[in-house]
Specification:
Layout: H1 2-10, H2 18-29, E1 32-33, H3 38-56, E2 60-65, E3 70-75, E4 94-98, H4 99-118, E5 125-127, H5 128-136, H6 145-162, E6 165-167, E7 180-183, H7 187-190, H8 193-197, H9 199-211, E8 217-221
Antiparallel strand pairs: 1-3, 2-3, 4-8, 5-7, 6-7
Helix pairs in contact: 2-3, 4-6, 4-9, 5-6
């Protein structure tokens, strides 16, 4: 009896799986990029089936784009009205986007599509002035140009907070001076091909709404 107890006390305990735990915690905190941690990215590719199974319990699904090098979690589609499946609470909140933010996202997505069509570099980097000019031509003229630029810069900061723009650190050479931003390729997952195909109509709607001072909002997953 004593021997059995001793053996039980010294028996090896199954070690936790730090890779899976780390992957899940990282994904629950936000978007994961291959460039941030190549080792973590490789672990995600190897364990993605287990990650998908785990997050499904939380009513989430894994979106992983191996070619573009990003992964994130999003809420699973809600059941249809006639579906008896119970509706579960959303773990990932939805947030309304202002017209100015939606407009900038549309313009950046269009710019990314044009950039990809040309080929070459995989990173689209725009200066602060280039982004301001993208938006500026669609906004109504006002008596205070400086205030208008401040509003556009505020919109840029909101898009940075959303994770669709990444502000680059100052560097020597071409990136010296004014701020530069990388357009995150995850934007393609949120602004799909159908949405982009309706780009001109959406821009017309945004421009009309902004000219009229409307405050309508779109809602997207956070």
């Amino acid at each position: 009896m004593e021997e059995d107890f001793a053996n039980a006390m010294t028996a090896p305990v199954a070690a936790p799986e730090p890779d899976l735990s780390s992957l899940l915690i990282g994904l629950l905190k936000g978007v994961q990029y291959r460039e941030q941690d190549e080792r973590q990215w490789a672990a995600l590719l190897n364990l993605q089936a287990r990650v998908r199974h785990y997050v499904a319990v939380l009513n989430l699904e894994l979106v992983l784009d191996e070619a573009e090098g990003y992964a994130f979690l999003k809420s699973r589609p809600e059941p249809a009205e006639d579906d008896p499946t119970p509706r579960l609470p959303r773990l990932i909140a939805r947030r309304p986007l202002s017209f100015s933010v939606s407009l900038l996202l549309a313009l950046l997505r269009k710019k990314l599509a044009e950039f990809d069509a040309v080929g070459g570099d995989t990173r689209l980097v725009l200066s602060r002035d280039e982004i301001v000019e993208l938006v500026r031509v669609f906004l109504p003229d006002g008596p205070n140009e400086a205030k208008l630029i401040d509003q556009i810069e505020s919109t840029i900061n909101k898009v940075v907070d959303l994770g669709f723009l990444h502000k680059l650190k100052p560097a020597s050479g071409g990136l010296a001076g004014q701020a530069h931003f990388e357009v995150r390729r995850i934007l393609k997952a949120f602004v799909d091909a159908q949405w982009l195909a309706e780009f001109d109509a959406r821009l017309a709607a945004y421009q009309s709404a902004l000219s009229g001072g409307a405050s309508g909002k779109e809602t997207r997953d956070e």
